[in-house]
């Protein structure tokens, strides 16, 4: 048998592992990412947020990792062209000797289809030679049940592309809802590895060491995906806001706009407290608020990002009126 050897001048290119975390709005992607970074701190993180105001990066404030944010649209459409130069810059920094990270984790926005990100990593030759896709991890909230799969095609696409499905927020759902969702996931992604997490708690080694899949490239380039039906706007608070006024406004938003509201997330300052208050919610549900540790870069300005299904005229003005 003939043996072939690379010529002495040939250099084997080391590939950096890449993990993609996807999942619909409010399904616990950032909570899971926090858990992974505690276990694997030598990671570079790319966060994509649909709204123009980044909030998720505030939840990673305890981690000192190379962090990049892509805001104002989704990686599958509006900001897709920003991913390639960002990955090239990361790689060049890594090759220059700044090897502060051993892997790259990309968190897509909650309404992004992962397919275009896969297309970039696998089709663009320069990136494909230097980055190795390890898998697509998709979070699915048991608290939302299986109904949102029917309501939002974006959630279906995320599940269909998953290598690993992580069911989250099982403490917020009944056994019947969990069983129905479990059966739905089996039908949608029968080959995906299935895990369950509560508050992001699971074995990180299982996520980081899943067997790689062989993915077949499209014969043609990926066509442009249809535009999203979602709208995002930000309420900004220059001065501290009392908890009572804040919660009354949020309860009004949850109750009166339950059909249009998809997601709310924000960091708000309250009187007499240096630690900002993190508030989160989804359609029909407001999660318990929590205090975040103070960071030197905090500017004392509160921000609340609201994502709705379609444009809801007059909503921002209505909410401001509630605060008065």
**Basic shape:** globular
Using the 3D structure, state the CATH architecture of the largest domain: 3-Layer(aba) Sandwich
Structural class: alpha/beta
Query: In terms of per-residue confidence, which ranges show pLDDT below 50 for 5 or more consecutive residues?
Result: none
The total count of strands amounts to 13
Determine the strand fraction and express it as a percent band. Answer: 15-25%
For the largest beta-sheet, the strand count, sense and barrel status come to:
7 strands, parallel
Order of helices and strands: EHEEHEHHEHHEHEHEHEEEEEH
Span of the ends, CA to CA: 83 Å
CATH class descriptor name of the largest domain: Alpha Beta
Q: CATH fold name of the largest domain, please?
A: Rossmann fold
Please give the domain count: 2
* CATH H-level homologous superfamily name of the largest domain: P-loop containing nucleotide triphosphate hydrolases
Neighbour order of strands in the largest sheet = 3-2-4-1-5-6-7
Radius of gyration: 21 Å
Which range best describes the helical content: under 10%, 10-25%, 25-40%, 40-55%, 55-70% or over 70%? 25-40%
**Integer average pLDDT:** 85
């Amino acid at each position: 048998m003939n043996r072939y050897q690379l010529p002495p001048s040939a250099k084997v290119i080391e590939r950096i592992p890449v993990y993609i975390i996807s999942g619909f709005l409010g399904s616990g992607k950032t909570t899971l990412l926090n858990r992974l970074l505690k276990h694997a701190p030598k990671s570079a993180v790319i966060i994509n947020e649909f709204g123009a105001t980044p909030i998720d990066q505030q939840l990673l404030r305890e981690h000192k990792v190379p962090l990049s944010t892509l805001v104002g649209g989704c990686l599958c459409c509006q900001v897709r062209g920003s991913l390639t130069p960002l990955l090239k810059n990361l790689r060049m920094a890594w090759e220059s000797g700044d090897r502060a990270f051993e892997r790259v984790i990309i968190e897509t926005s909650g309404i992004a289809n992962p397919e275009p990100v896969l297309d970039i990593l696998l089709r663009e030759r320069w990136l494909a030679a230097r980055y190795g896709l390890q898998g697509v991890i998709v979070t699915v909230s048991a608290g939302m049940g299986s109904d949102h799969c029917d309501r939002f095609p974006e959630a279906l696409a995320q599940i269909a592309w998953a290598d690993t499905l992580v069911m989250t927020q099982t403490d917020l759902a009944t056994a019947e809802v969990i069983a129905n969702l479990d059966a739905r996931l089996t039908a949608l992604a029968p080959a995906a590895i299935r895990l369950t997490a509560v508050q992001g708690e699971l074995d990180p080694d299982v996520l980081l060491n899943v067997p790689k899949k062989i993915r077949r490239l499209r014969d043609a380039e990926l066509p442009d995906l249809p535009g999203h039906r979602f709208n995002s706007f930000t309420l900004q608070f220059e001065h501290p806001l009392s908890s009572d006024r804040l919660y009354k406004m949020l309860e009004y938003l949850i109750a009166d706009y339950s059909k249009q509201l998809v997601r709310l997330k924000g960091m708000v300052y309250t009187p007499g407290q240096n630690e900002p208050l993190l508030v989160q919610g989804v359609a029909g549900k407001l999660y318990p608020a929590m205090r975040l540790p103070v960071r030197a870069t905090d500017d004392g300005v509160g921000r609340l990002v609201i994502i709705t299904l379609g444009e809801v005229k007059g909503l921002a003005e209505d909410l401001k009126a509630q605060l008065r």
